[in-house]
Amino acid sequence: MKEKNEGVNAFLVQIREKDYNGKMVEMKGVTIKDMGWKMGLNGVDNGALIFDNVRIPRENMMNRYCDVNENG
């Protein structure tokens, strides 16, 4: 079967976990950043998620139109 690029696809990814005290903490490989103060649009809460070597199970793919098989 020839490879076909289906473009960008969405996945559900857990970005925080609870520590032993019940507080939410960032997961290993996930960085959550606030974009800070913005001139004129400070009421808009923007942020960034950075993933570094995070493995996502293929079962987490939101696969209405596209899917990933066991071979990738």
Please provide a written account of the structure.
By secondary structure, the protein is mainly β. It has a single domain (1-72), classed as Butyryl-CoA Dehydrogenase, subunit A, domain 2 (Beta Barrel). It contains no helices and 4 strands. It has strands at 16-18, 24-26, 30-34, 47-51. The relative contact order is 0.25. The mean pLDDT is 80.
In short:
With 72 residues, the protein is mainly β. The chain is built from no helices and 4 strands.
Mean pLDDT: 80
Q: Under the CATH scheme, which class?
A: Mainly Beta
- The protein's oligomeric status is single chain
- Biggest pleated-sheet summary: 2 strands, antiparallel
CATH architecture: Beta Barrel
**What is the assigned CATH homologous superfamily?**
Butyryl-CoA Dehydrogenase, subunit A, domain 2
Low-confidence stretches: none
Gyration radius (Cα, Å) is 17 Å
Quickly count the domains.
1
Find the count of extended strands (DSSP E, 2+ residues): 4
Per the CATH scheme, the topology name is Butyryl-CoA Dehydrogenase, subunit A, domain 2
Name the shape in a single word.
flat
Per-chain topology:
Layout: E1 16-18, E2 24-26, E3 30-34, E4 47-51
Tag the structure with descriptive keywords.
single chain; 72 residues; mainly beta; Butyryl-CoA Dehydrogenase, subunit A, domain 2; two-stranded antiparallel sheet
